[in-house]
Specification:
The complex is a heterotrimer. Chain A contains 19 helices and twelve strands. Chain A is α/β, with parallel strands linked by helices. Chain A is globular. By secondary structure, chain B is mainly α. Chain B folds into two domains: about 55 residues, no CATH class; about 220 residues, Orthogonal Bundle (MetI-like fold). Chain B has 13 helices and no strands. The longest helix of chain B is centred in the first third of the chain and has 36 residues. Helix content of chain C is about 75%, strand content about 0%. Chain C contains 13 helices and no strands. In chain C, α6 runs parallel beside α11. The longest helix of chain C has about 45 residues. The radius of gyration of chain C is 24 Å and the shape is flat. Classes of the chains: A alpha/beta, B mainly alpha, C mainly alpha. At the B-C interface, α1, α4, α5, α6 and α7 of B face α1, α3, α4, α5 and α6 of C.
Chain lengths: ~425, ~280, ~300
Amino acid sequence: MRKWMASLLTVTTLMLAGCGGSKPNETTPQPAAEKKEPVTLRVIYSGTTDIEKAWSVKMKEQIEAKHSDIKIEYMYIGWADVEKKLAVMLQAGDVPDLMQTQDATNLVAMNALEPLDAYLSKAGATVKKADFHQSALEYGVFSGKLYSLPTAAIGYGLVVNEELLGKAGIKAEEIKTTDDLVKAAKALTKDGVYGMGYASGAPRFSWRDPAMFAFSNGEFTLADVDDAHKKAYIEVLSVYNSLRPYMPEAVTAWQYPEMRKAFAAGQIAMMPFGSFFTGNVYEFNPDIVAKSKVIPIPHGPSGQKPAMMVGGVGLSMLAGSKHKDAAWTVMQDLSQKEPVAQFAASVNLPSRVDVKGEEIAKLAETIYPKAFEAHGKFTGSFSPLLQTYGKTMPRIIGQAEMEVVFQKNMVQLLQGKLTPEQAYENIKRDIAQIKK
Amino acid sequence: MKDSTLFRVLLSIGKYSVLAVVLIFTLGPFAWLVVSSFKPAEEIFRQIPTWYSENFTLANYRWALGPLGANIGRFLSNAFAASAGTALLSLLFAAIGGYSLARYQFPGYKAVSVVLLLAQMFQGPLIMVPWYKMAAALGILNTKLVLALIYGTTTIPVSVWLMSGFYRHVPRTLEEAALVDGCSRLGALWRIIVPSAAPGLVATTLFAFVTAWNDYQYALILTSSDKAKTIQVGISELVGFMGMSNWGGIMASGVLATIPIIFIFAYIQKYLIEGLTAGAVKG
Amino acid sequence: MGGHPLAQLRLFVRRHGFAWALILPTLLYLLAFQIYPLLQSVYLSLTDLSLTRAGTGKFVGLANYYYLLKSDPQFWLIFRNTFIWVVACAVGQYLFAVPAALILNTKLRARGLWRGLIMVPWVTPVVVVGIMWRWILDGDSGLLNYYLNVLGLIEKPIIWLGSDFWVWPAVISASIWKGFPYQTIMLLAGLAGIPKEVHEAAQVDGATPVQRFFLITLPLLAPVSVVLLSITVVTTWTKFDLIWLLTEGGPGFTTSILPTYVYSNAFVFYKLGLASAVATLSALVVMVLAIVYMRWVNTDVE
């Protein structure tokens, strides 16, 4: 036994030691003595799938080739974990330089991000606010200050399977109000196919879909539990109540992957979704992209016309970064037309107004070999909708907590245990608690 | 005579049936994983599950091992080093600490037991920030060493407790004989008692290794690059949110992450469980 | 400096020095690496620190504790859930581990391979286990529903992870699957420590296998089993990865347990003060249980 332990000891020590045990963190930024000293920027990048990573690698090569004094070091941290890890890093005083952001509400509340307005108005800036779709740009604005430059715009709408709709004799454009929606869902639910999908198994998604409906029903948010919005709120809950027979029962436990899977398999005909649609369904069934179309979320009785939520994926600078000028240089480079187009070729919509959907199709050929034309078409039809109906997605403090209580009540509504009015009262009480 | 052959045959059938039931329960989900890893992505999540693959493919494995894909070879070796380090640490501390708790009612031993228990209770989110600070200050962020150290905080208290339980089971006569023969207390401990608590050592090593292997949260927070990222973090990164996840590749990665350990255990357990305890029974 | 205290010290060292020396490394390790974070957590629990609200972090005494124990609508539910979770997992894993260990202890062909394979659930990466089990338990096209339907046992699919009734059995089953291999190996080690002669003597005396199991094996396994169960209880008390992947503690807070509540408060709501209070309360409960357990064990010593 001693011999075995001894060899185990040796092997382990070698493995632990042979991997640079106690060297100081090699990425501790050294203050640049002179401008010539290459600066290593630590960038948190959250696209950890193949295609998103590919973009990041290409960008690094281009930037390092263009600027001899800048080196990029990526920290790949997936979207689900990035905020958490950053919070720990910040609390411990370890601040990276750049990061990708979507909903920056919490980060701004933690004073983690650097406002960018001053940088944009500096002479020699290669980007300006007007380059971007305003609704996407606004997504990074808090209290009048801009905190992130969007690389992609994320639009949210109702994605429908035109083939299934056609079989039921429905044209997508005809679904304008929530009544139309319920009627369509009813007509589509037969032979093992359901009209509508939902992903109520995780708080974030349980909140998001009804939030889209609330947005289309008078542009309010699910956090607006005051009496002024009571009627419209209950209308939104009633829509879901009416849709119950036309959604698979399993939606109470579904998270996004299950819902996407079902749509890709043609089991559900419609689902509220975002512009990251193509990649998310291509992995299950590339052919579904060509059959899909997006329309604005139907509006309810309290809304005159639909509104589509617009978010974005952008780059932000950390307020505690020690290399802000270099970081700004990189941010600008990554927000030019080419990089934005290439980013949108893999996922989501271009954030810049000068990138058209059709160009993206060509770039997407290597990424989605079986559906690049469909991807281009899908993206191309999404963008104009954003122009017409797109409004910046609301950013709510404490949303994460509200999502959980909302989900709790939503699931009970879906199971028939609560009426829309009862659900509303519960939600109102719980959210009011959180807001205190 | 006939009775006993019939009996033996029945016994055999019985034994292997029970084994089969146990293995079906254990390996069922894993079997699905393995089968799926040879399927192209579109086939995996069909309505009607198939336990064979229509378009058998090795592409997923090529992707999982390749540098452009999952690159899990690196993550596996990192995880192995960190877990082995944890196991070693736990073993050393537990072999001696457990004995102390088992045999000696020294003043304060009750308090020590409480401290050991308490130490394990503060896991997860709460110790992440202090640990990150500490690791950054010591310069060991993003290393396998820091992982072994933080896993130790979970595994050492339990290992000590475990070993103390096993030590209590070892008859005192053994040490008394050794002391009479002129061994020092330390010598007796090292040469006689520790080997007789061998099952406990096996259990401790295994527990510490797999606990470390299974951790996701700490590895996520304390590592940031291929230098030290473990397989848990590596695989979870493959499941994207917006981009396209390679489900077949994820399945293949899952299989590759599991199989080596299985073979190692299958090989080791022969020598450990049987060889060592044989020594204990004899000694 | 006087003779007396020094003599006392020498006596102490002679009597207890060895014992203390053996446990000291462990204590020093924990002191260095756990105690500081622990103290900081307890301190945090006495503040109202919330990362997304400016100006928080002030000392508020036991306010968080009062909130949890009196006003938090979920706390007691979560507390109860944790007990159910921990006991069900520990006992469930044990009930599966015993037959598995017994069978793996008999003479079998390729026994090493079977023993190795039993480890699979324990070693499979957690994320993959989450994917596997979410697919098995899917309410719509999951494997479990499919086969139950094929076997004629159910008509409509059961929404395992969405139903208030079925979600706990579903989650506990997944946890039993993942955790029982460890108990099996432990029991195997314990069984290996039972000398063959004991069984042979009983066989000579005419005991049947069943009698031998209940009258010899189980009692001899008792020490190992007790240690095993208590360790499982303690380690399960703070584990949350599997539940989080399967349900995120939902729907709502239905399957939330103390560790997921700590996690939610710390990293989803960013209320570090409250999260620390939950963790401290959680630790206190386990401490009380452990002290009770130790009293009971020590009355049985030798």
